[in-house]
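Troubleshooting: if your tokenizer reports a length mismatch, compare your output against this known-good record of 110 residues.
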Amino acid sequence: MSEFSPVPLTLEGSALLHQFFRFDWKAWRALPTADRDRIAAESVAALEHKGSGPARSALFSQLGHKGDLIFIHFRDSFEQLNQVELDLAQLPIYDFLEIRHSYVSVVELG
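Known-good structure output:
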């Protein structure tokens, strides 16, 4: 059995931010490999940042023509979701992302 739960375990519920992006592959491929590696490493480190608690973000490949990447962020409050949204926009990778859709939801144990 995995040591990680498939969903955050909380009685209060978790706030979720779902972000759907198109990725600018042409501009990305034009960068030198060292720059791509640095930007990717910075992005991973930012999403893994623990801060005041566990950072729970996931990145998925989106199927279909409407986008390329899906970010899903689980946080304990809407304020924390707002902060992760602002933090992501400050990363160098954000220059290659075009937001296509987003929504906020709440997950609770039922």
